[in-house]
């Protein structure tokens, strides 16, 4: 027993109990057991990562029982389930979330503490699964959490990328990308299910034939295929017994295919082909809001969608003998157009493989699919060259042509001789290079189409999808995004969460509207000072992080002014940078100027191929260098760029924020979700009337929101009139001073060329109206400073922001999807007694 400090007596280990027991003592024993028997270490030898693994397995054991039981209940009751199809899930770390949801956080902290271990340190060991780019991927992760928390039977389908979103580092101010080898040290949160392997075909051609009943049919003779292995991730609901599944597909070479080549003696090619097949799920395309017209991307999309549909049909047919009730049991939500090939694939499976008639198949397809659009940017609209598409998926191209033929006949009937309309609605874009329009396919093949904030949905109806809206207004609905309060308040801001729970109980975690009850405490001195104290503590924690990672000392008492999100011109990080340069200029002109001290914090990745966004990152880092190293200025201002912004870092940043920058050009940001996370954590927002900002402002009240800038309509009108950014440069002295200082090399050591592309794009195009909104923004920032001088007023506004954010829970979003689109109901899972599991 010397070497087994946790084995106090022979009778201590009962398999069931040690794998399911929830008390501190059992957990401690299980933790040490896992450390010993899975990691092969004892406490002396264990690295921090070993400890993290041991704890993760301990939690996973407790999830497994609930997980299996949930799936049994779903099967027995033959429930209707939501299948969420998404090419991205930006999950964030799993351990803390699992501990919280299953209700073991405090126990784990307690037993670790007895061993002189810190739970937070262990949680920090986890490499987060970064299987997404930004908002769209994180939304999918929040939705998975809410579905389980609301006890709605659901399964998420996606891709198990071997390399997730690249790791960003900053060298000499530039973004440098490194591969994200997140699976390197093993992953306790997934269970491979090789028994549910499916085959996915590619390439080849089609052949017609007459079946025994005399019916003309088509078969697809592929020229290669790839196997998909599912890896299942548990998705525990918050404090209930539901554990849903996230099923991510990994590509594997088909053995027989390789053996053929192998037998012919070409070993090298056999191995190369194998790698080629496995390339499909190698890497996440690192573009946000821009599509990548690469063949491999289409292969990824088709691969995961085909795997998922085959899986859904397999599960359905284990309980049904025909497709009569398929649409009653299954609903498929497609997260943007990335999975929209599923519409053609379901048609193919039904018509070719299961011999369902076309009309019936089409009726089923349209009933099960629903489409969420996430962007108005035209560069994000997916279009595949017909030739590429036909080479990869010849049968799907035929099916799309057939869908299109029938669809356009319908349109012709309703709008005779309206060839312009036909051309716009067609699934095929004509021209020198014909293209398949995936958004059109998604609209035609779905019964519901939604945008992700009110303005966004209105703009879809008026603009991007106007022709579809004219055809089928009843298909359109809005579901404003939301975020999970479990991860983005309870887990990330534990002190604030505790204060809330002490004052209003814990109901807010399941029903975020309850957070409104703190509004009655806004004048309570003890509550106010606790609130302030927590914000100060969180800012101090972030300041420590900044010191450690950026070697910059920042004043925790200064205004923390933060913009973290992907770098994109439409998000206008430049506007904030121009404000900083404006302050810099003022301080240089008048060194004794009294200004509100601010710490500007940026974070975010640029797509590796997006040169302008990368230059903006370089620019911000260059401004940071000049500002921070100028004693005259750095007394008041600090500029920090936090490298490798990801979910884990986001969780540190939101709680420490005073001012949240949501400054996109109106009409460009579909919704935004960081705007919600910041405000929920008591930050005030400076923002335009864009995306969900509009609804946030309505909820928190115009007095508690710093609004500036052109509206979407004004942006449109200005561009229609002919926008000339040069006029703003000529007429605005401070703006000119900013531009001139950059142009003169003021932030590039005298180099007048470095930022030339950036200035030229502003002076000659300024597609995103940085100049047009500059003055309004500067003025609004002045109001921010005034408000921050009055700390009591700011504190009140901060409390009111959190108090009024109840609407922006992803639980509310999911309830709306359930009611208005999915017609799905909760299926509660009763706890299963741990004792009944046989040893
Ligand atoms: C994003 C939108 O840009 C963001 O405004 C929204 O909050 C988020 O989706 C969730 O709905 N869109 C993307 O990330 C994207 O790549 C194709 O859209």
List keywords for this structure.
839 residues, alpha/beta, Rossmann fold, 3 domains, ten-stranded mixed beta sheet, six-stranded parallel beta sheet, 49% helix, globular, binds N-[methoxy(oxo)acetyl]-beta-D-glucopyranosylamine
Low-pLDDT residue spans: 1-15, 835-839
Question: What is the CATH top level name of the largest domain?
Answer: Alpha Beta
Average pLDDT: 95
Helicity level, as a percent range? 40-55%
Give a short synopsis of this structure.
The protein has 839 residues and is of the alpha/beta class. Helices cover 49% and strands 14% of the residues.
Question: Layout of helices and strands, plus pairs?
Answer:
Elements: H1 15-20, H2 24-37, H3 48-76, E1 81-85, E2 89-90, H4 95-102, H5 105-114, H6 119-124, E3 130-131, H7 135-149, E4 154-159, E5 167-171, E6 174-178, E7 191-192, E8 198-202, E9 205-210, E10 216-221, E11 224-236, E12 243-253, H8 255-263, H9 267-278, H10 295-317, H11 326-329, E13 330-335, H12 341-353, H13 358-368, E14 369-372, E15 383-385, H14 386-392, H15 394-414, H16 419-425, E16 428-429, E17 435-437, H17 438-445, E18 448-451, H18 454-464, H19 466-471, E19 476-478, H20 485-491, H21 494-504, H22 525-550, E20 559-564, H23 573-589, E21 598-603, H24 611-628, H25 631-634, E22 637-642, H26 647-653, E23 659-662, H27 674-680, E24 684-687, H28 693-700, E25 706-707, H29 712-721, H30 725-731, H31 733-743, H32 756-765, H33 770-789, H34 791-803, H35 810-822
Parallel strand pairs: 1-4, 1-13, 4-12, 13-14, 14-18, 18-19, 20-21, 20-23, 21-22, 23-24, 24-25
Antiparallel strand pairs: 2-3, 5-6, 7-11, 8-11, 9-10, 11-12, 15-17, 16-17
Helix pairs in contact: 2-3, 2-5, 3-4, 4-20, 7-35, 8-9, 10-12, 12-13, 12-15, 14-15, 23-24, 23-31, 23-33, 30-31
The protein binds N-[methoxy(oxo)acetyl]-beta-D-glucopyranosylamine.
């Amino acid at each position: 027993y010397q070497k087994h400090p946790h084995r106090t007596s022979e009778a201590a280990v009962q398999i069931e109990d040690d794998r399911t027991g929830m008390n501190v003592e059992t957990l401690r024993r299980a933790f040490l057991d896992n450390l010993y028997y899975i990691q092969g270490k004892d406490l002396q030898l264990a690295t921090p990562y070993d400890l993290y693994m041991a704890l993760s397995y301990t939690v996973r054991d407790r999830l497994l029982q609930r997980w299996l039981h949930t799936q049994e209940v779903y099967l027995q009751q033959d429930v209707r389930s939501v299948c969420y199809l998404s090419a991205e899930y930006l999950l964030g770390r799993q351990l803390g979330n699992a501990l919280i949801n299953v209700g073991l956080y405090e126990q784990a902290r307690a037993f670790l503490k007895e061993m002189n271990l810190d739970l937070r340190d262990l949680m920090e060991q986890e490499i987060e699964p970064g299987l997404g780019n930004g908002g769209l991927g994180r939304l999918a992760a929040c939705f998975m959490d809410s579905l389980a928390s609301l006890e709605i039977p659901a399964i998420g389908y996606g891709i198990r990328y071997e390399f997730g979103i690249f790791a960003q580092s900053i060298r000499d101010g530039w973004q440098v990308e490194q591969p994200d080898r997140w699976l390197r040290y093993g992953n306790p949160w997934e269970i491979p299910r090789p028994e549910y392997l499916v085959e996915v075909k590619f390439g080849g051609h089609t052949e017609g034939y007459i079946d025994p009943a005399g019916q003309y049919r088509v078969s697809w003779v592929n020229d290669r295929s790839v196997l998909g292995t599912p890896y299942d991730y548990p998705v525990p609901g918050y404090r209930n017994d539901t554990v849903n599944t996230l099923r991510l597909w990994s590509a594997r070479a088909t053995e027989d295919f390789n053996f053929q080549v192998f037998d012919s003696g070409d070993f090298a090619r056999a191995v190369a082909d194998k790698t080629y097949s496995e390339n499909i799920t190698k890497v996440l395309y690192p573009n946000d809001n821009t599509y990548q017209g690469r063949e491999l991307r289409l292969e990824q999309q088709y691969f995961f969608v085909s795997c998922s549909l085959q899986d859904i049909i397999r599960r359905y047919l284990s309980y049904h003998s025909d497709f009569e009730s398929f649409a009653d049991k299954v609903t498929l939500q497609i997260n943007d157009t990335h999975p929209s090939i599923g519409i053609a694939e379901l048609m193919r499976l039904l018509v070719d493989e299961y011999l369902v008639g076309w009309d019936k198949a089409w009726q089923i397809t349209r009933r099960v699919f629903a489409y969420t659009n996430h962007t108005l940017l035209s560069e994000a609209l997916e279009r595949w060259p017909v030739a590429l598409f036909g080479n990869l998926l010849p049968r799907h191209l035929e099916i799309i042509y057939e869908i299109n033929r029938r669809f356009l006949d319908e349109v012709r009937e309703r709008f005779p001789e309206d060839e312009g309309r036909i051309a716009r609605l067609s699934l095929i874009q004509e021209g020198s290079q014909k293209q398949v329009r995936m958004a059109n396919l998604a609209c035609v093949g779905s019964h519901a189409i939604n945008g992700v904030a009110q303005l966004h949905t209105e703009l879809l109806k008026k603009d991007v999808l106007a022709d579809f809206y004219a055809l089928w207004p009843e298909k359109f609905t809005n579901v404003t995004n939301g975020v999970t309060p479990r991860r983005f308040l309870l887990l990330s801001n534990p002190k604030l969460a505790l204060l809330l729970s002490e004052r209003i109980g814990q109901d807010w975690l399941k029903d975020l509207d309850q957070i409104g009850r703190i509004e009655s405490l806004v004048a309570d001195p003890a509550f106010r000072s606790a609130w302030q104290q927590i914000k100060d503590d969180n800012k101090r924690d972030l300041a420590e992080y900044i010191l450690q990672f950026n070697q910059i000392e920042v004043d925790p008492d200064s205004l923390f002014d933060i913009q973290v999100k992907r770098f994109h011109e439409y998000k206008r990080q430049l506007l904030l940078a121009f404000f900083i340069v404006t302050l810099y200029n003022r301080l240089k002109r008048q060194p004794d100027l009294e200004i509100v001290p601010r710490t500007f914090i940026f974070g975010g990745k640029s797509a590796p191929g997006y040169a302008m966004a990368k230059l903006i990152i370089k620019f911000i880092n260059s401004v940071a260098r000049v500002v921070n190293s100028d004693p005259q200025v750095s007394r008041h201002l600090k500029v920090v760029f936090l490298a490798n912004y990801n979910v884990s870092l986001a969780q540190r940043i939101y709680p420490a924020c005073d001012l949240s920058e949501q400054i996109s050009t109106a009409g460009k940001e579909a919704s935004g979700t960081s705007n919600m996370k910041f405000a929920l954590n008591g930050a005030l927002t400076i923002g335009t009337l864009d995306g969900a900002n509009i609804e946030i402002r309505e909820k928190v009240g115009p007095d508690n929101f710093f609004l500036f800038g052109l509206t979407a309509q004004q942006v449109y009108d200005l561009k229609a009139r002919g926008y000339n950014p040069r006029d703003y440069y000529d007429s605005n002295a401070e703006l000119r001073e900013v531009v001139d200082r950059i142009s003169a090399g003021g932030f590039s050591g005298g180099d007048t060329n470095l930022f030339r592309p950036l200035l030229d794009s502003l002076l000659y195009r300024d597609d995103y109206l940085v100049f047009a909104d500059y003055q309004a923004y500067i003025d609004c920032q002045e109001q921010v400073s005034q408000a921050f001088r009055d700390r009591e007023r700011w504190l009140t506004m901060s409390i009111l922001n959190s108090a009024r954010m109840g609407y922006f829970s992803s639980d509310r979003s999911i309830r709306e999807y359930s009611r208005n689109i999915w017609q799905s109901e909760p299926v509660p899972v009763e706890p299963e007694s741990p004792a009944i599991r046989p040893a």
